[in-house]
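Quick check before the chapter quiz. The format below is the same one you will see on the exam, so make sure you can read both the input and the output lines.
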Amino acid sequence: MVPTLPPGDHTDPASKGLQLRVRAKTAGTSRTWLLRYRWRDEWVRIVLGHVPGMSLAEARDRALELRKAIDDGIDPRRARPRRRPAPAPLPGSAAVTSRDAMHSIEFLVSEFVERYIRPTRKRPEYAEAMLAKDVLPEWRGRDARTIEPAEVIELLDKITDRGSPVAANRTAALLGQLFKFGIHRRLVASTPVQLLYRPGGKERPRERVLTEGELQTFLKDPIAATRYQRLAHVITLLLLTGQRRGELALARWSDVDFKARTWTIPDANAKGGRGHVVPLTDWALEEFQALKRMAAAKRSPWVLPANGGAQHIDPKQLTRGIAKCQARFKKQGIEGFVLHDLRRTCRTNLSRLKVEPHVAERVLNHAQETIAGIYDRHAYMDEKRAALEKWAAHLEALRR
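Here is the expected output.
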């Protein structure tokens, strides 16, 4: 019957809203399955498929499926991925003005960012960037209730296939949080994030420790090794203190006491929200003084001001600076490393210098999980200072 119908719109009596549109064209006759339905007091038609690619039985099944979605309050137009996703807006940039938009992926993301990410994360911009880069462009315009588990896997596979397995793992975790938030806020009924293992595979912990020879090469002429004067001081300072790049990037000059010879890392800047005080050796003080001279022109409160001086530098900018120097490092006999490897190098050498493990761990501000760690609130300032003085003396011997 279907192949013989004349041009025009033909309604299927066995399936509510299902129509076959037949059009005569120069190249032949086209036959297209349509679903006609009423949404918000307006009649709408959407394309389901074409003959012969979709049979009558398949068209009826698809029409029934979409009619159920309509009964659940889901507009089928928002339940299908677009062929060419439109550019994604930044989270929170678009106002929600209709009942349909309350269930859109854009609204879910904006609520998630405003009510969960920004209040709970010290660096919310990283999560926002992941959502803006990979999630919103993929599902732009979708009703979040219609996103399927297979689509989540497809999205994560794309990230892995472009050579970013760690980013795929981070995105998977973020999506899990996003849809749990949606369930909590009654924006979705269930989560499509149903992963049995990490999409990017198991992440092996780094074990890189700079050798004595590499340390000697760098310390003899740090600026020649990096080309960037500020970066040279940053590397040296992190090596001397064993602290994190983010803690230095967020440091203010008010945190550095040149008279008391200390650097206070506030709770807000420390991992786990547990700050501490870092004793500074003469060499570490020299590095801070060099950074202060470089920042003087900007009159900024930050140790590492960004352009203009009103804000601190993004910690990732330090990472990118290290990446730019890798070829230069290798030419001088220094294998590739990241800033966190300096922290590991410091901790490893504290052990080699016979510093007690509980003191070395406190230098790095690692959590003490034992019963003693819970009840022992001693700051260990003298012990930490002695450990860092021993480490600085060892490095000083290498650069002579």
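If your answer matched, good. The CA atoms of residues 164 and 200 lie 8 Å apart.
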